[in-house]
Amino acid sequence: MQNKISALKIIVLSFSVTFLASCAKQTEADIIADAQSCLDASTSSTVDACLSKVENLTSEGAYLIKCAGSFIKEGFNSSSKLSSALSGISSGSGSNSGSSSTSLIAGLAFTSKSSPSENASFANTTYDSCVKSKSSGLILLSGLSLTSTSLWSLGLSGSSTPPTQAQLESLMGTLANDATASATVGTAVVAMYESNCQSSNSAPGSICSQFTSAVSAVPGGISNPSAIGTQIMTCFSNNNAPGCTGF
C-alpha cells in the first residue's frame, strides 16, 4: 500500500511539473503578445512601458520586441523619418551608389540620448537585440545605425549632432585603420552580409554588392571582420581605392 501511495505521489508530482512548465511557456507567449500589442500603439515617449514587459525574457520573440522598440524610441516609427532614412536604398545604383549608401547610413544614426557615446552604447545594445531576434531586415537597419552612431562617437564626440553624409564619408577615411572602428563596422557588415546578402532575398539596391565587394577583397573573408571594416570604410570614403567595386 505504501509503495502504491509513493508511486501515486511521483505521478502527481511529475504531472504538476509538466503542467507548470507548460503554463510558464504559455505565460511567456502571452507576455510577448501583450508587448507586441503595446508596441503597435506606442510612440517614442511611451515605448519604454512596452519594453519593460520583456526585459527579462531572452527568446527570439522577446528580442524582436526589444529591437523594434529601440527604433521606435529613436522616432523611426515616424513615416517621414523612416522614409527619409531609407530613401537611399532605392536610389543605390549607378555611379553614385556609394554616396546613396552613406546617405542612408548617416540618416539612421541614433540620437535619443544626451551624448554621442551614450547613443553609440544604445545603438550597440539595439544591434545585439536585433541579431538575437534573427530578423534579417532589423539586423540590416541596426547594423547601419551602429555604423553611423559609433563613428560619430569615435570621431566627432564633441558634436551634439550626428554626422552629415559628407562628414560620415570623411570619418570613414580618417577612421578606416582605427582598431575600434574597423572591428565595430566590420563585425556589423559580416552580420548584415550573412543575414541579407547570401540568398535570393537579398537587400535591395547596392548595399549587398558593396558588402560582397568588401568581403571578397580581404584575406579570409568573413573570418576577418576588422579587415572588412577597414576595406568598406576606405571604399565609402574613396570609391577609386583598390578593390572597391560597386561604390
State the shape: globular
How would you characterize the largest beta sheet?
A: none
Mean pLDDT, all residues: 85
- Which secondary-structure class do the elements indicate? mainly alpha
Number of helices: 11
Rounded to an integer, what's the Rg over CA atoms? Answer: 22 Å
Query: Beta-strand level of the residues, as a percent range?
Result: under 5%
Number of domains: 2
Uncertain residue ranges? 1-24, 91-95
- Total number of strands: 0
Sequence of secondary-structure elements: HHHHHHHHHHH
How far apart the termini lie comes to 82 Å
Features:
2 domains, mainly alpha, globular, 247 residues
Write up what this structure looks like.
The protein has helices at residues 2-40, 47-51, 60-73, 79-90, 97-107, 116-133, 136-155, 165-175, 179-196, 207-217, 225-237. The chain has 247 residues and is mostly helical. Helix 4 packs antiparallel against helix 5 (97-107), helix 6 (116-133) runs antiparallel to helix 7 (136-155) and helix 7 (136-155) packs antiparallel against helix 9 (179-196). It is globular. The termini are far apart.
Could you provide a short overview of the structure?
The protein is an all-alpha fold. It folds into 2 domains: 2-66; 79-237, no CATH class.
